[in-house]
Design a protein that fits this description.
heterodimer; A: alpha/beta; Rossmann fold; two-stranded antiparallel sheet; B: alpha/beta; 2 domains; 5-stranded mixed beta sheet; globular
């Protein structure tokens, strides 16, 4: 199924929305109002966008500390996300989670773990729950190349293959775990786990191309929905900004500025916008409208967050146990 | 190996009779059968419940606790797992988030250390970390080993580690009645519950009603009334403490024996009320002394009930050492009825 013009416009809009939200957070981070460690998604927008475009509302996603893009692409409310970054009671996690722990149960985002590799088995377990309940829901797990260092990935893949679970493993290989490059952590180019060919659909793709991400994930998701088991998709991409915080907080000297520059030139948002313009799918006035809508939505969300109440000491002991 | 087939050869002390309708006339079954019956009833009453774990479907069925359940309920709901405790624990967490009620059996607490990330970083945090948006109803079960040279990596009683963690409920049954009732309560709970059982419990037979019932999590029970000293004991040491107390009754000491049944939440009121009457406290745990269960209960009573204490608190625990394998060393290592008896006498008489 090829993408309709509307679907393409929708994906570009999602990518622009994620990018502009990330840029606004970055530009306001030093005001010290968002007192939570932010891990920005700039440069990786095509992955969350392309993957989530294949999913239904009741499909599940499981993500990680760098989760703003996944949350938004899956349908998460921007006001609730920004309120969470401002640690307000109106935040998606009511101020108990912060930037690394976004949740949106209504859209199948059952919470993000900031233990690298920790969400991989949880997403696998969601797939097990769907299979046991004979539902045709799919569980998608987003993780980075850092999580591919963890044993949970291999343990989870084995179990998913063993049980033929409806799970799609989406690895975002952005080249860096904090300040450690993949080359110092992985033996050769073996991150791409081929798995057992008859048990696992696997692909290694350009993670900066939203349509490639969409087409590949769609195959994986349809396969999972038909009960044909798990998939592993490695998306090559790049973390344009530092591991956490804003640009000025990224330590200098651990990576070559020329490397960053070369990836900036491959910016997935700019590239997709140019492509759709060249195809005549979008034009300048459409883009101007979208940018204006997004800017207005961000203003509203930041205002909402700033004006929302902060939790107080009286809230401290809530939510230890579910009654 | 003999320790993997401990036969139920002792009846529980009569302290159970008061708790059960029909008293000593009730049906008597083994500890393994009681646990098995709880699982079977949960599986049959609730389609969300499933049982997983390495060896749950093997012929011995996890010391009998899971025996033949896969035949009655199918291998989709009672299944063996890879030896991948880290991921499988996370898979249990995910399944719970996805609407299921997993019961994950680990045959030794030692192996729970491989599951620590999911248990402590994930399961115990999920409800709080997301402001109550999603809860994790799951049960982890593990059984402390002892004897036959089990040694340092197959006999650790690690409840002290887990008692430290907010967001986890920690249950340690001591009777057949509670093994069933607490398992059913744990499965019904909306939070992660860890049940730490003990191989010595599996020697028991006791009175267990046939119908499903729950024993409340967070409520302890007085197993023997007494006036001179409160003895808090967990797991199979409840029986040892009870026998020690019965012996001492003939020597003019009346010890009150408390079984907390749940270590977290701990029934503090029950312990404090008892200490307010007896003025003395002996605490017995199957684990280590330093930073453990006895340390926590001592601190709690020292903070909240110091005015009632007439004597120093005594603790009866295994020494702060890895478990040795050799049987002469094991004998020296493990504490039991006589150690508890001595501690009570010392606390009451100052000798």
């Amino acid at each position: 199924m090829s993408l309709t013009k509307d679907a393409k416009r929708g994906m570009l809009r999602t990518m622009l929305r994620i990018r502009r939200v990330q840029e606004r957070i970055e530009s306001e981070y030093l005001k010290d109002e968002m007192k939570t460690p932010v891990h920005l998604y700039i440069g990786q927008e095509a992955i969350a966008t392309g993957v989530c475009a294949t999913l239904r509302k009741d499909d599940a996603i499981n993500s990680n500390h760098r989760s703003h893009g996944h949350y938004l692409a899956k349908g998460g409310d921007l006001k609730a996300m920004m309120a969470e970054l401002f640690c307000r009671t109106t935040g998606c996690s009511k101020g108990y989670g912060g930037s690394m722990h976004l949740v949106d149960v209504e859209h199948g985002n059952l919470g993000t773990s900031a233990i690298v590799g920790g969400g991989i088995p949880i997403g696998t377990g969601l797939g097990l729950a769907f299979q046991m309940q004979k539902l045709d829901r799919v569980s998608v797990v987003f993780f980075g190349d850092g999580a591919a260092d963890e044993g949970t990935l291999y343990e989870s893949l084995n179990f998913a293959m063993l049980k033929n679970l409806p799970v799609v493993y989406v690895m975002e290989n952005n080249g860096w775990a904090v300040c450690s490059p993949t080359a110092t952590r992985h033996c050769g180019d073996n991150v791409f786990h081929k798995g057992a060919q008859d048990r696992l659909f696997s692909a290694k793709i350009d993670g900066n191309d939203p349509e490639a991400v969409y087409e590949t994930t769609l195959k994986a998701v349809e396969r999972a929905r038909r009960g044909e088991g798990p998939s592993f998709i490695e998306c090559t991409t790049y973390r344009i900004l530092g591991h956490a915080g804003c640009v000025s907080q990224d330590p200098k000297g651990y990576r070559d500025p020329a490397e960053i520059e070369s990836w900036r030139e491959r910016c997935p948002v700019c590239a997709y916008q140019s492509k759709l313009q060249a195809e005549g799918v979008v034009n300048a006035s459409f883009l101007a409208d979208v940018e204006a809508e997004i800017a207005a939505e961000i203003d509203v969300a930041f205002d909402f967050a700033r004006q929302s109440p902060l939790p107080t000491a009286a809230d401290l002991h809530k939510y230890l146990f579910c009654e | 190996m003999p320790w993997s087939r401990i036969r139920p050869d002792t009846n529980e002390p009569e302290f159970m009779s008061a708790a059960v309708d029909g008293g000593l006339q009730g049906r008597r079954i083994s500890y393994a059968e009681a646990t098995n019956e709880a699982l079977s009833q949960a599986l049959s009453l609730d389609p969300r419940v499933f049982v997983m774990g390495q060896g749950v479907d093997d012929p011995s069925g996890m010391f009998g606790a899971t025996k033949n359940l896969h035949m009655a309920y199918g291998r989709e709901r009672v299944f063996d797992t890879p030896l991948a405790e880290t991921a499988l624990s996370g898979i249990a967490v995910g399944a719970a988030l996805g609407g299921m009620r997993p019961v994950y059996f680990h045959n030794r607490p030692d192996f729970l250390l491989l599951a620590m990330d999911q248990l402590v970083n994930h399961a115990a945090k999920w409800f709080y970390m997301f402001g109550g948006a999603a809860n994790v109803p799951l049960v982890f079960w593990a059984c402390v080993g002892r004897g036959w040279g089990s040694a340092a990596q197959h006999s650790q009683a690690l409840q002290g580690l887990f008692m430290h963690v907010p967001g986890l409920k920690l249950v340690m049954p001591s009777t057949c009645f509670d093994a069933k009732g607490l398992m059913l309560a744990a499965i019904a709970d909306k939070n992660p519950v860890l049940i730490i059982d003990h191989r010595m419990n599996f020697k028991q037979r006791g009175i267990v009603p046939e119908e499903p019932y729950t024993v409340p999590i967070g409520k302890g029970v007085i197993r023997r009334k007494g006036t001179d000293c409160t003895v808090v004991a967990v797991s199979h040491l409840v029986t040892d403490a009870f026998i020690a107390a019965q012996e001492l009754a003939g020597e003019g000491i009346e010890a009150e024996v408390i079984d907390p049944r749940t270590l977290r939440p701990l029934d503090e009121d029950l312990i404090l009320e008892s200490v307010s009457r007896t003025g003395r406290l002996v605490i017995c745990d199957t684990g280590w002394k330093t930073g453990g269960v006895t340390a926590e209960i001592s601190a709690m009573v020292a903070e909240k009930g110091f005015q009632h204490l007439k004597a120093p608190i005594a603790r009866v625990t295994n020494p702060d050492l890895p478990t040795p394998a050799g049987y002469t060393l094991e004998q020296a290592y493990y504490i039991g009825k006589d150690d508890i008896r001595k501690a009570i006498v010392r606390t009451v008489r100052g000798q």
